[in-house]
Specification:
There is one protein chain. The two termini are 67 Å apart. The chain is 39% helix and 20% strand. The protein has 2 domains: 218 residues, 3-Layer(aba) Sandwich (Rossmann fold), CATH 3.40.50; 67 residues, no CATH class. The longest helix has 40 residues. By secondary structure, the chain is of the alpha/beta class. The radius of gyration is 37 Å and the shape is globular. It catalyses: L-glutamine + H2O = L-glutamate + NH4(+). Belongs to the glutaminase PdxT/SNO family.
Length: 328
């Protein structure tokens, strides 16, 4: 019975924020406002592996990628994503997670990949073109108030194309000039998610609204709970297999891995009853005669009961069945 007065325990999670460059401190400040969340900076492999989920913050994407390459973090970050650990990229982090990007600096930059989309790196223009907009929360995780959120776009990217496995969470309606840059598109995606990956072109960490961070923490908790359930199921399966194997080892030899419905094995119980009552009955059970006759002399010898050999009645029964009683 569930106690309605008893609070439901919150699954504690460790959220790492890639702290190479950009607004990682702002992300950590908002994360620490959420119950059951431990937020920490990530700069090396050990700190990454200690995280249940990772946020790649906004900043300068090329600089961030160069530092990650110099510190040898790119392979570790890719393995972290491939292991289906939740990742959320904001602004520069969105570019980092994309499979394809345009508008990059000469020479390009390293991309973690995994998010099936085409991102335009400074789609909304230079720093002076930065802006804010009130946008509706995605219906799939809007809170009870359905209040819009404040989206801060700073030299922001945009998602021009996305694959079939990518869910668009939020779109931005373009003005005439922006539509021309987007080759006629009337809107662009600015928030998406696909499996364990989530990305936004804006900066939720630069506002006081914790709802986007709460959405990511919920994703991390869901993945963590699923893994714990899977691990428990596997452990229970191993224990059940071990118990079955132990029970098999403890079973009588004639029961192990044998088809018990064959006549010779059905006769075992009949033979046991015959052995107990052989001095009191005038005839052995028919199943004994048919199925165990070839083995009778061996079994009777193993009984080593002098009274059985010395009984005149037993001698007569043995003679009628053509059985030779052997000495003990």
């Amino acid at each position: 019975m569930v106690d309605a007065q008893r609070p439901i325990p919150i699954l504690a999670v460790n959220i790492g924020v890639l702290a190479l460059q950009g607004s990682f401190r702002e992300h950590i400040a908002l994360l620490r406002r959420l119950p059951g969340v431990n937020a920490s900076e990530v700069r090396n492999r050990q700190q990454l592996l200690a995280s249940d989920g990772l946020i790649i913050p906004g900043g300068e994407s090329t600089t961030m990628a160069n530092i990650a390459e110099r510190w040898g973090l790119i392979p570790d970050l890719q393995q972290f994503a491939q292991a289906e650990n939740p990742l959320w990229g904001t602004c520069a982090g969105l570019i980092f997670l994309a499979n394809r990007a345009v508008g990059q600096k000469v020479g390009g930059q390293a991309l973690l990949g995994g998010l099936d989309c085409l991102v335009h790196r400074n789609f909304f223009g230079a720093q002076i073109r930065s802006f804010e907009a009130l946008m509706p929360m995605p219906p799939c995780f809007a809170d009870a108030s359905n209040a819009p959120f404040r989206a801060v776009f700073i030299r922001a990217p945009a998602i021009l194309e996305s694959g079939p496995g990518v869910e668009v969470l939020s779109t931005y309606e373009l003005d005439a000039d922006e539509q021309q840059q987007a080759k006629g598109q009337k809107s662009v995606a600015v928030a998406v998610r696909a499996g364990n990956l989530m990305a936004t072109a804006f900066h939720p960490e630069l506002t006081d609204d914790v709802r986007w961070h709460a959405v990511f923490v919920a994703l991390v908790r869901e993945r963590l709970a699923t893994r714990q359930h899977s691990a428990t199921s596997v452990e229970q399966g191993v224990e059940a297999t071990a118990e079955a194997e132990t029970g098999s080892r403890l079973a009588p030899v004639w029961q192990r891995n044998r088809p018990a419905d064959l006549p010779v094995f059905r006769s075992a119980s009949s033979f046991a009853a015959a052995e107990i009552n052989v001095g009191q009955t005038s005839r052995l059970p028919p199943t004994f005669e048919r199925s165990l006759l070839p083995f009778a002399s061996v079994v009777l010898r193993s009984m080593r009961r002098p009274a059985l050999r010395q009984s005149e009645t037993d001698q007569q029964q043995a003679s009628s069945l053509n059985i030779q009683l052997l000495p003990p």
